[in-house]
Specification:
Radius of gyration: 17 Å
Helix content: 40-55%
Strand order of the largest sheet: 2-1-3-4-5
Structural class: alpha/beta
Strand content: 5-15%
Oligomer: single chain
Shape: globular
Largest sheet: 5 strands, parallel
Distance between the termini: 24 Å
Number of strands: 5
Number of helices: 7
Length: about 190
């Protein structure tokens, strides 16, 4: 599928096993992809993820049976009030970088999605994350744009047309989610 997919799976699996979290950012359709990726990690995707029996017992409610083990993921595109405040009070291109300073920690992972690889707000988030010891993965189209030289790992697809890049990104991040889930959870 992609030569760097194995490394991305290993990086995320190790991050989650160490108690780290995944941060996500992108624009437009790529922001929607962030919400999609979050959904696949926070609740079951293809595998059953029953809640730990001790936690179910501690909750002590019948509905706890329906809860699932999740993985810690934060979608930096979803905080509309904060994004508006940063855009108004600071600089719109700082919206994701500002959140990285609050949520990021060494050992975490940031996935920045930009079809061109040149989205300035994603670039600033990547630069900030790297400065903080957060591992960075870029998802881009052909060439990688400005993210190519900034990310620790690049998952670029061989397309330049925005919707085609996004179609290939969907296949790529579904594989990423499936494989991480498989590594993290027993059936």
């Amino acid at each position: 599928m992609h030569e760097n997919l194995d490394r991305a799976v290993e990086t995320l699996t190790n991050c989650f096993r160490r108690g780290g979290k995944l941060l996500l950012c992108g624009n437009g359709g790529s922001a929607a992809d962030c919400a999609h990726i979050l959904g696949e990690f926070v609740k079951s995707f293809c595998k059953r993820r029953p809640l730990d029996a001790r936690l179910k017992a501690a909750i002590g409610e019948e509905w706890a049976e329906k809860l699932q083990q999740g993985l810690p993921v934060i979608d930096l595109t979803a905080n509309c009030a904060l994004i508006a405040a940063v855009a108004n009070d600071q600089d719109a291109a700082l919206a994701y970088a500002q959140q990285v300073t609050a949520y990021g920690a060494p050992g975490d992972v940031l996935i920045g999605i930009s079809t061109s690889g040149n989205a300035e707000n994603v670039r600033r988030a990547v630069v900030t994350a790297r400065a903080m010891g957060v591992y960075t993965i870029g998802m881009t189209g052909r060439g990688g744009g400005r993210l190519r030289g900034l990310c620790d790992l690049l998952l670029n697809v061989d397309e330049t047309e925005t919707y085609r890049v996004q179609e290939k990104h969907l296949q790529l991040y579904h594989q990423l989610c499936l494989r991480v889930e498989d590594a993290m959870f027993d059936e």
